[in-house]
Amino acid sequence: MSELIIGVDLGGTNVKTAIISRDKKVLGKDSRPTRAEEGPEAVMACMAESVEAVLAETGAKHGDVLAAGFGAPGPMNWQTGVVYSPPNLPGWKNVPLADEMTKRLGFPCYVDNDANVACYGEYWLGAGQGADNMCLLTLGTGVGGGIVVFGQLLRGIDGTAAEIGHLKVMRGGRTCGCGATGCLEAYGSVTGMVRTAVEGIEAGRKTVLTGVCKGDLKAITGKMISDGIAQGDEFCKWVMNETGVWLGIGISSLINLLNPEKVVLCGGMIAAGEDLFAPIRKTARELTFEVPANRAQIVPAGLGADSGVIGSAGCALARFESGI
Ligand SMILES: [Zn+2]
């Protein structure tokens, strides 16, 4: 067995690892708690253990592995593999992750931004297969993004490109986690959706949410809103629709800018299905030129929660082969 690639998705809660053959077959997987609170040494030991576990599971040797890719939260330098200081990894400051993991594992290790690798995963093996021009939005606490142009990740000169969550969708508006105002993330993330709900209730709208959160509006969650929709609550339906409209506004700019074949959405929020996708598609179509609007399909991710781990492997293989 030779020519294997390993992908590792470094999240604040879990480390996920997959071992993949060069012909794109997933041969083994592992997932374990990150132990983020113990600092970078413990997290790197955890990732090395997870890699050893998938090697043992498939009976592969270190010499069978071409390369390993690590999808990590930014900010980072993807070329040097140095991770600066991600908010959800306490104690990390300029950690030379690629070099450290190469030392521990003995094969070439590459580091990339987690949203970029998720995009590459969908391009390589998921809903974006066959679409050489595509983009991806991760819809969670924030809105992450990745862009593939003619089969290559669009990184920008400093590697900071594709921050789709920080596209401006209005002048002024809500303050975003990044400090700026009017970012898509402040409206189209789960956090943004909850803010839409809270603002609506504060403006006097009636909803089951008020009872569910026992009057504590800070306790409202995305799940409460989806449960409200399942119970037929009109206000919750309106909140999801509004969230879809905001996302459609941001996505229309992406479609006009990039003329992609696919816009892939991933993250927990896509479980809302048509309640979310219908307003996104309608709004994006209304605001986009006809030719790129006809071309772009707005679709859910094909790899579920595995886009990142599979994309980390895909990115590592692409970088190993091209020498970047
Ligand atoms: Zn922002």
Brief descriptors of the model:
single chain, 324 residues, alpha/beta, Nucleotidyltransferase, domain 5, 2 domains, five-stranded mixed sheet, 11 helices, 13 strands, globular, binds zinc ion
Task: Report the order of strands and helices.
Answer: EEEHEEEEHEHEEEHHHHHEHHEH
Range of strand content? 15-25%
Ranges where pLDDT stays below 50 over 5 or more residues in a row are none
Distance between the ends: 25 Å
Q: What is the CATH superfamily of the largest domain?
A: ATPase, nucleotide binding domain
Largest sheet: 5 strands, mixed
The CATH topology annotation of the largest domain reads as Nucleotidyltransferase, domain 5
CATH architecture of the largest domain: 2-Layer Sandwich
Helix content: 40-55%
Outline, from the CA principal axes? globular
Q: What is the β-strand count?
A: 13
Overall pLDDT, averaged? 96
What would you note in describing this structure?
The protein has about 325 residues and is of the alpha/beta class. It has two domains: about 140 residues, Nucleotidyltransferase, domain 5; about 170 residues, 2-Layer Sandwich (Nucleotidyltransferase, domain 5). The protein is built from eleven helices and 13 strands. A five-stranded mixed beta sheet has the order 3-2-1-4-8. α5 crosses α8, α7 crosses α8 and α8 packs across α9. The longest helix is centred in the last third of the chain and has 25 residues. The chain is globular. Bound molecules: zinc ion. The site of zinc ion has 6 residues, from loops.
Concise description?
By secondary structure, the protein is an alpha/beta fold. 40% of the residues lie in helices and 20% in strands. It folds into two domains: 4-121 and 306-322, Nucleotidyltransferase, domain 5 (2-Layer Sandwich); 130-301, ATPase, nucleotide binding domain (Nucleotidyltransferase, domain 5).
